[in-house]
Amino acid sequence: MSVLVYIENVEGTFKKSAFEAVSYAKAVADLAGQDIIALSIGQVEESELNKIGTYGVSNVVTVNTDQLGQFVNQAYASVIAEVAKSKNASTVILSNTFSGKGLAPRIAAKLSAALGAAATALPTVDGNKWQIKRTVFSSKAIATEELSADKRVISLSPNAFEVKENPVSVSVENFQPNVAGSDLSTVIKDIVRATDKVSLPEAEIVVSAGRGLKGPENWGMVEELAEILGAATACSKPVSDAGWRPHSEHVGQTGIAVSPNLYIAIGISGAIQHLAGVSASKTIVVINKDPEAPFFKVADYGIVGDAFEVIPQLIEAFKAYKN
Ligand code: FAD
Question: Residue 26: is it exposed, middle or buried by C-beta count within 10 angstroms (0-12/13-18/19+)?
Fold first, then answer.
């Protein structure tokens, strides 16, 4: 029996969330007393593959065929399930990224496995009864779910598990999959990158602003702060409804749910619908000129002040710190 961890890459580079999945899978394999195997699909340089060894995994399987050059959900799910069967893996682990959300249920169906989606902590392992924890009801509660099956697929929430270094040397095995034509019925013709910015759902730091910023012309300082911190930018719903920012930045109950290590909220009141999407953040910093703003109740750190004075000072302070 083994644990198979799928490591997602973007244009040949592994994401941080992929290394979190590797560290998590290594810990799961140790808990279950099983071997661990990492799987990479697509063109990835040897130097990049070697990075997997940093997190304690030496057996790496690569699948690199022309058919799988672009991410196609059905085809990737089939290949991951095929490798899992071939390597006698009873547990498949992957990151709960945009791709992972599409892959996990497909792999589970192909393996007749139980699915534990968006896990936030290590499972408890008791024979074939595993339990995972995940946040529910907009992060207001933690659910414990039992996975009672011989096989299981677990997707790990980004930023939920810290990477752990435990360097070993890597041995790479090339795997030749049987990709069915029906799995390739979707053909990616072209990929147009909408932005080079940090991806919001997986960002470690998010700088978010609301109606307190008064208008779209004032977002330059938000973007500058985000760039210095290597952060993604986000906004409240009214801001995207007004067209000040794109809808892809809207966080909350009706927008994207984020779980960064640091969420900086500027000029956002902290309505319950906004908090629903951000309360899983590890540390929340609120900047608001109204000391009674509800956001302060859930803040780890608060600055009562005018954003137009506070943000420029923060930018200068971070610049000075970096130099
Ligand atoms: P406001 O409520 O107008 O708050 C602006 C804040 O900026 C105030 O606290 C003010 O003190 C502060 N401020 C003003 N000037 C400054 C300054 N110079 N410096 C510092 N602070 C300043 N909202 C979401 O965000 N996400 C959602 O997903 C979402 N879903 C919703 C779903 C439903 C069904 C409903 C009914 C509402 C939803 N909302 C959502 C809207 C939500 O209820 C709030 O109206 C919204 O979050 C308020 O946005 P805001 O904080 O940017 O604006």
Answer: buried
